[in-house]
Write a structure and sequence with these properties.
Order of helices and strands: HHHHHHHHHHHHEHHEEEHH
Strand order of the largest sheet: 1-2-3-4
Mean pLDDT: 89
Number of strands: 4
Distance between the termini: 64 Å
Radius of gyration: 24 Å
Number of helices: 16
Structural class: alpha+beta
Helix content: 55-70%
Shape: globular
Largest sheet: 4 strands, antiparallel
Length: about 280
Amino acid sequence: DLKSYYDHDIKYDESQTSLIKMLGLNKRTFEMLKSCQTIDAHNYLRKNPDISTKEFNDAALLGFSNELRKLTKDFGMKYGKTLAYIKKNTDSKARDFVTDYIDYVETLNAAGYPIDNQYLYPKDFRKADAMVHKELEEKLARRKNMTNIEKIKEEARIDQVINNISVALRENKELRQWMKGSDGLKVIVPQSVGELTDEGIKLHNCLKTYANKIADKQSLIFFIRKLNDPDKAFVAMEYTNGRIVQIRMDNNKAVEDAKILQFADAFARKLTQLGTINQLRRAA
C-alpha cells in the first residue's frame, strides 16, 4: 500500500490520514517524502515537521546530514553563504563535495590559515585544497623527522610564539579589562610552555600538550582565576574559532557554576567580536 503512494501521484484525501499519521507526518511533509523516498528523508521530516520546501531540498542535497551545520557552528561561518558556495561548486554529488569541503576547512585550521572569506571560499577549490593539504603534510613531516637539536630549536620557537601571543592579547585595550577582572574573576594569558606545564600539574590535566595548537594559532588557552585568590589554579579554558571548546576545573571536572560560565561566555564573545585568532594568524 505504501509503495502505491510512492509509485502514483495520488491526491490527498481522508483515506490517507491513517497512513500519514502512521508515518508521523502531515499532509505537506508527506508530499515532500513522495518527492524523495528514502529512510533518511522520512526521519528528517519527522524531526522537522515545519520545514519549508526550500529547506527540505537543501537538506536533500546534503544527504540529510547535519555535518555542514556543525562545521559552520564550530568555525563561526555563515550557513547560508557556505551552502551557496557548495551549490556553486558541485552538481548532483553534493554530498561528496561536502565531505571534501569539511576536510578542507579542518585542514585549513590545522595549517594555521585565517578562517575568513579569502580562504573559506576560494575561487578554485581543488587547487586551494591541494595546496593546504600539501603544506600541512610538509609541516607534520618536518616535525616528525627533526633531529634533537632541531627539536630544541622548535621548542624555543614555540615558547617565543606563545609569549608573543600573550603580549598581543594583554596589550589589547578591549581585552585588558578581562585581565584585571570583574565580578570576582579574572583572565590570565599563559606566557610560556612552562606556565602551561605548571598549570596542568596544579589542575591535574595535560595543558602542556596544547602548546603546539597555540603556536599554530589553532586554539587559545586561558586561565580563569578568583580575584581574591589570583595565584591559585582554578579553571582552564580552550577557545577557538568563535567558541569555547572546553572549560575545566581540577581533574578535568566540567564547570557547572553559572557565574563562571557566564564570565567565560562573555569573554569568548569579546574574542569573537575582535576576530582574535584570525588577527593573530594574519600577523604571523
